[in-house]
Each structure stands twice: as C-alpha cells, then as structure tokens.
Design brief:
By secondary structure, this protein is α/β, with parallel strands linked by helices. About 50% of the residues lie in helices and about 15% in strands. About 35% of the residues are buried. The protein binds 5-O-phosphono-beta-D-ribofuranose.
C-alpha cells in the first residue's frame, strides 16, 4: 500500500515529478505515480482523488502546468495534505502554474512549493509522514546531515584550490 500518491497532469511533467519520486525512494517511502489530466479526463481524475484515502495514501503530491487545476481539485476532494508543484511553462515562465496552484480559496489549502520544486515536494511529504514515524525522522535527519557535509566539502575544496581553479 503506497503512502504517497504522485500525480501529474501530463507526461511532459515527468522530469520534475521524478525528482519527488527519487527523494521518496531514497527515504524508503512507498509511493504510486499516475498521469491523470483533470481537464482531459475529469472522470478518471475524480475516481483517483475520491479513492486515494481508502487506498492508504496519506499525502498527495500533484504537479501541473498552465491553468494548473489538478492540485487544487485534489485538495477539494482528498481530505489529507496535498502538495502542489507548479510547472515551468514557456509562455509565462511558470507564473501561470504558480498562481493557479498557490491562490487557493480559504478552507482548501495546497502546500505549494517552488516552480519545478520536485525535490522539495518529496521532502515536504516525508516531513509530514515523519510526524508519526520516528524511523523516517531519523532518515530525514541523516539526509540533512549529508547535505551539510556536501557543502562543507565544497568549501574545503574552494579553500584548497582557490576560486580560479574551482570547478
Ligand atoms: C497541464 O498542461 C500539464 O500538467 C502540463 O504541465 C501542461 C501541458 O500539458 P501537455 O500539453 O504537455 O500534455 O495539464
């Protein structure tokens, strides 16, 4: 049974959504992934959102672009947290997606990450689940520590070789 449902409006969103999946996989969180268009197949979308909680899903990560109604409509139907990822778009640079997702009416929140913020969506889902999962919290703390070590190594290299040689 998957803990997280990842859903995207089109396979053109996959490069971003796969970053969320990679984080969940790294942290040992089960997930299922779907391509479901709220506009092009509203009946399929409604079945997914209506049945997700009964399937055991605790958090939905929903990504969409342009008139990005998928995350907000998930939040209207699914009773647990929904994280929205606005896709970058060529015509409006992703502001269209961002505003569509973040400007939810009072009562129906979507936790919106940055434009193309797939990795942070995965991390936020993990942090929500870690509220009631000590082992996962430990893995998240180890993840944070590894980021710190990675930055420290970069600075050590900068100090060793100087900025002109740094690559
Ligand atoms: C949205 O429209 C999708 O989420 C995607 O970001 C955007 C474009 O979709 P395609 O025309 O590439 O299928 O529904």
């Amino acid at each position: 049974m998957a803990q997280v449902g990842i859903v995207m409006g089109s396979d053109s969103d996959m490069a971003v959504m796969s970053k969320a999946a990679d984080v969940l996989e790294e942290l040992g969180i089960s997930f299922e992934m779907h391509i479901i268009s709220a506009h092009r197949e509203p009946d399929v979308f409604f079945d997914f959102a209506k049945n997700a909680q009964a399937q055991g899903i605790k958090v939905i990560i929903a990504g969409a672009g342009m008139a990005a109604h998928l995350p907000g409509m998930c939040a209207a139907i699914f009773p647990l947290p929904v994280i929205g990822i606005p896709m970058h778009t060529t015509s409006l640079g992703g502001r269209d997606s961002l505003y569509s997702i973040v400007q939810m009416p009072s009562g129906i929140p979507v936790a919106t990450v940055a434009i193309n913020g797939g990795a942070n969506a995965g991390l936020l889902a993990a942090k929500i689940l870690a509220v009631s999962d000590e082992a996962l919290l430990g893995r998240l703390q180890a993840y944070s520590e590894s980021m710190k070590v990675s930055v420290q190594k970069k600075d050590e290299k900068l100090q060793a070789v100087g900025y002109k040689e740094y690559k």
